[in-house]
Amino acid sequence: MKRIENINLDKKRVIIRVDFNVPIDEKLNIVDDNRIKESLKTINYCLAKDCKIILLSHLGKIKSESDLEKNSLKNVSIRLSELLKKEVLFVPETRGKLVDEAVAKMKNQDIILLQNTRYEDLEGKKESSCDLDLAKYWASLGDVFINDAFGTCHRSHASNVGIAKFIKEAGIGFLVEKELDNLKMITDNPKHPFTVILGGAKIVDKIGTIKNLVKKADYILIGGAMAYTFLKAKGEEVGKSLIDEESLEFCQEMLKTNKIILPVDSVTTLDKDSTNYETKNKLDKNDIGVDIGNETRKLFSEYLKKSKTIFWNGPMGYYENELFQAGTKYLCEIIANLNAVAIVGGGDTASCIINMGYKDKFTHISTGGGASLELLEGKELPGIKI
Question: Do 92 and 203 have their domain in common?
Fold first, then answer.
């Protein structure tokens, strides 16, 4: 695997696959710019080498014409310009005459950002299916390819694996380096006691990861909607809580390991968007579990306090409603005061923790939820392998 420091970049045209897949609100404002900030080290390194820089990224999913405007990278280019204190030219096309002309006019230290690579998914999913003609075109724009989008390294797309097939000089950027180096503290002989915190909703997407982690971890603390699938598998009443029905048998198998620690009480409501809620040890038939309760918070904290390594993926409650963020925030506060390696596996958990103000209290917060989970599952990531 070639790293950016080992590639001659001087005055080259460098294509950087970045991850600007940031959350956008209804007014098209960027809610969390962490992923943009994480790209700056690699971009600035290339600027110092007098490169011409061509940036590629996806944003959201493009399934119909109605998805185009809300997933344009124009506002991302504006925010990137502000962070770099340097103009970033936004090209509102993914390929063709506008792109060719913009690249031809580039001078050393110029930066251009092409339109969302997933615009190419509108007809035939050319980006997501790794269309080689598209990849060859993007590769023709540069001399060197740097993959610095860890969040897509578990995907084989035209803008990462595809481009690398057609450019001899290719390697990973500083963000991907940092991700791999930090996640090694989990994948390679973590210090014990090693505690895993899992939340979120679906278990089926994390089965491989759980199977692998249960071999390494001393304790796995289960919160979020995921907890109610485990509790149902255990035979407890979970009311109308969100359940992953297809994973019940798997949960029963995992419970036999005696490493799974489940909530002993829950914050419940009859409507998850309501302001009315209470804490219960046992749910009634109409209850919806929306957060871990006080007793569970204390129980989980006892396991965390004796841990040397912690990996966390998934909020502890229905965090979209601020009333149900207390469990997640409580665990953040506990971990912030520990002398332990604490790594967050990206996704909703990362956004939640950063927005709560705990970014600097963790050893590492990954920018790639799916990629980090597949790495922890023991899989080889195609974006790294190439």
Answer: no
